[in-house]
Write a structure and sequence with these properties.
This is Metal-dependent phosphohydrolase. Helices cover 59% and strands 0% of the residues. By secondary structure, the chain is mainly alpha-helical. Bound molecules: fe (ii) ion. The site of fe (ii) ion has 4 residues, from loops.
Length: 189
Amino acid sequence: MELRSVEELMDLLHAPRGARNTAGGSGDPVDPYDHALRTAALLRRSHPADKELQVAGLVHGIGRLLRPGDDTNHTDRAQRAARAIRPLLGERVSRLVGLHGAARRYLGAFPPGRGPSAPGAPVPARQDGPMTPSEAAAFERDPLAGDAVTLRQADEAATVDCLDAGVLEDWRTVLELVAARQSRLGALD
Ligand SMILES: [Fe+2]
């Protein structure tokens, strides 16, 4: 499935409002709507100029919303989300969302205290397990790897009630801005 309008995307993000997702990476019950807003808000605070990174934070979890009840692994869900948003939000946002699945496996390759992973980071499921050293080296060569790790760290941090993250409507203008830029670029193809 591909998303074709900001309206369609916002409807999808609104859908789980008030729902509890107990299958999240941390195992803690997280409202997917709040989680999306918190992830985006953390990135807006840490990277105020990077609207695409913030938007990637907002939409990074839609793989599960696109296919409710789906129990495929985090990496596959991230890829599904990346495909769905590419036409609307463009290549960089799409790649960041796809790579945040890989970033989880990358961070899992470093035991807590010995690498970039935050202490207490969830242990990935086995089919979705930590990267091998050669996979990690290949991941690091991707120019977007650093931003994808930033996205994943915000994703992990956004499971706690950390800040007032506002409401989805606050993001409409930014989503429209990123979508408009993409449609201009698309017209040049
Ligand atoms: Fe997440």
